[in-house]
Structure formats: C-alpha cells, structure tokens
Amino acid sequence: MSTKKDDSKGNGAAAHRDGSGPAGVGDVSRRRLLGSAGAAGAAGLVLGAAGGAGVYAATRSEAPTPLTAVGSTEAMFHGKHQAGITTPLQARGHLIAFDLAPGAGRKEAAALMRRWSGVAGRLMAGEPADTGQGHDTGVALDAGPSSLTVTFGFGRTFFTRTGLTGHRPPALDPLPVFSSDHLDARRSDGDLWVQIGADDALVAFHALRALQKEAGSAARVRWQMNGFNRAPGATGRPMTTRNLMGQVDGTNNPKPAESDFEERIFVPAGGSSAHAWMAGGSYAVVRRIRMLLDDWEELTVKRQEQVIGRRKADGAPLSGGSEDTSMDLDKAGPDGKLLIPGNAHARISSPEENGGAAMLRRPFSYHDGISEDGTPDAGLLFICWQADPFKGFIPVQRKLDRGDALSPFIRHEASGLFAVPGGAASGEYIGQRLLEA
Q1: Per-residue pLDDT at 19
Q2: Annotated catalytic, 324?
Q3: Catalytic residue among 189, 249, 388, 404
Q4: How many CB atoms lie within 10 A of CB 237?
Q5: Which of 36, 91, 250, 259 is 20 to 30 A from 219, alpha carbon to alpha carbon?
C-alpha cells in the first residue's frame, strides 16, 4: 500500500529532512507520510487481540527505516486533524493530564493553548522549543524531529472551569462504571490532556519538559504516564508489534483506505453550532490497564491462545489462515467445539459481535517497576480514537465486562475521556475555535 497521502489532511505526515540520514534520504519528499494507516492497537478493545493495526508493521510495505535515519522523519503540526491519531506508532510516549490552576479561566486557557501550540509546532519541526519560560534545555540537541507528535485534548471539567459548558458536547458525558474497574481517581481524568510520541526517548522527554515548563502558573500536572513500543528498524521485516503478554498486538484496526474510516474516527462538520469546534476532531478514551503477568505466564501457550483467540506465534485467528485472515467465528474443530472459544477476547471485542462498533486503537506499553507484592507493575496505556465513544468504546467494553476470558489477567487502574479538537490551520492554535467562540 502506498504511504503517500495529501498532506493537507494533516494526518501525521512525515518527511525526511533534506541532507540528513544515509545516502538517498534527502531525495525523499519532505511530505512523505509515515504511513497513513491507523494506529497500532492492541488486538481487540482492551489489548488489541481482536484487531488493531500494528501500525509499524501492518501499514508499511517498504523495509524498516534504518535506525540512522529515524531522527529525520517529521510529522506536520498544522492540518485537518491533529497528529498522533493516525500517525504510525512511535517508540516512546508520554501521557500527561493537567488541571487549570485555581482562578484560571477561559482567558488563561486560551493563552496557554496558544503557547503550547507554538512550542509543539517548533518541536515537531525539529527546532528549539524557544519557550517563554527560559532557553531551550538542549536535551534533544543533535537529534532531528524523530516523528515527534504532540496532541491536545480537553476533559469534561475543562468546560466548567472556563465557563464553556454550553459548548461541551454530549459525547463527553462520563464513561459508565464497569465491574472490572479498579480506578485511581488521582490518575484519572483532568482538565487538559497531552499525548506526546516520538521515535527517540530524548526527543520525547524534551517535548515533555518544554510543555510542562510552558504551563507556567496556568495549569498544574495532575498525572503523568510513560510508555514505549518497539523501535523502528528493530525487526528484519515490517511486522506487527507485540504487547507485554507476548501477543501480536493488532491486525484489524479501521484503515484510512476504508470508505467509512473518517466517519468512524473523526467528528464530521455540520453539527450543532455550539459543537462546531469539534469538526475534524476525535474522542480519546485513555485507560491504564495493568497486566497480571505472573498469572498470565503460568498458562501454557495453548491456553493463552484460547483466551485471546489468536495464535501467539503469528497472530493468526484460531480458525485458520494468516494474521490478516478474517476470523471465522462459526468454524468448529473435529470435536464440534468452536475453534475460537465463545469467551475469547478476539471474538467478544470484534466488530462482528458488536454491531460494527469500531475504534482506532493506538496504545503504548508501560513498566513502572515492581510492586510491593513483588509483581511487575506493567501493562498497556490503552488509547482509542472514535467519532463518538458511545458508539465505539462503550458498547464494546460493556460486552467485554460481561464475560471476556482475558479479564482475570488484567486490571483497569485509571481512566479518562477527552475531546480532541481538529488540527489548527497555519496561524491558529489548537482549540481556538472553542476558546474564541
């Protein structure tokens, strides 16, 4: 599949910077996309076993970019959609939620988003942060943009604190409570949400520090989570990534080439005038999902495959074929039993079992050390994108909550829902259509 796409769409376009990288890199168009297909996801809703394009693998037909050229790729800040939604998975990520400071309101929020957009645009172009809070830290000196993306969203409470409740869309209503939730309120929700992704750890950290400093007295960090994925060029051929359970992490995410991709993932124009600021935007559901790895690793490979519904070696469905083969949910073995068990994660989270409900899954793995009980504090920073969470995440998660074979091996520990506005045109800042309405 071609990786070129009209960069006026702004969907995570990438370019090799002239004169950088190995011989020939400078000949590649500055506007070459990093891959227009959706983000990698975890197979199925929670971990992505049922679907989720492992973007690095599943959307690239060319050989992996050599590590010596990783720094040269650039994602565009300005465009129809924000970068970091359909951008291919990056090797490093930071998720940060902020709360507006006491007394800060609409005026302060607008000034903050203007500053943040300026910093993000410069950093994504590989330029110094040049923040108003001091000189650039120099953390990312010598590195190129490294596919850096910075994505901004607003939580439900943001609208109350800025006096904009009349512009708060119904799709931002609170998520329902699920029986599998063990949520820590201190690591959930927030007025503002920022997603940072890059293919270099120092570039990602540089952006994190610049944005934290630029928040100044207007906003305070509520929580921060750090994640990672397989680095580009780490495998001999393009292939879908794996999660920390060792499972091939996604195959069947909605793809931009599909005729209904835009309407599933992005908010269309032409809605209520009060919510027109969300045109071209999307809703991000963020869940910190801890994997109970000690328990999982006690299972045989065969049992793990039955829980997921896919082969561990290559991600193919247990009904047969290769990773890209559609699941045959009705196929039975010689014993008459379904090859993909009735409670398999892949079956329960599949669009076929949920009235076509779909979302674009784009997670990061995380590992935060060892807990007091000696078990690893590790799992998935699950992020999914959709035009309406009440037609994407919520119906699928409700079904998973009623009988997913994977549930005993995971724990949802934090949650958030954020309205992510469309991209900014040149000269604009993210959220301007809302804050200056």
Answers
A1: 38
A2: no
A3: 249
A4: 8
A5: 91
- For the stretch 132-150, pLDDT in tens is 666 788 999 999 999 999 9
The string of pLDDT tens digits covering residues 288-306 is 999 999 999 999 999 999 9
Spatial separation of the C-alpha atoms in residues 317 and 309, rounded to whole Å: 6
Residue 349's closest CA among 292, 298, 310? 310
In this model, does residue 29 exceed pLDDT 90?
Answer: no
Mean pLDDT along residues 218-226: 98
- Looking at residue 73, what is its pLDDT? 93
Global pTM value: 0.86
Q: Which of 145, 162, 242 has the alpha carbon at shortest distance from 200?
A: 145
Closest CA to 9 of 77, 73, 79: 79
The number of C-alpha atoms within 13 Å of 16 and in the hemisphere containing its C-beta is 18
Direct distance between the N- and C-terminal alpha carbons of the chain, in angstroms, rounded to an integer:
41
Q: Determine the pLDDT at residue 331.
A: 97
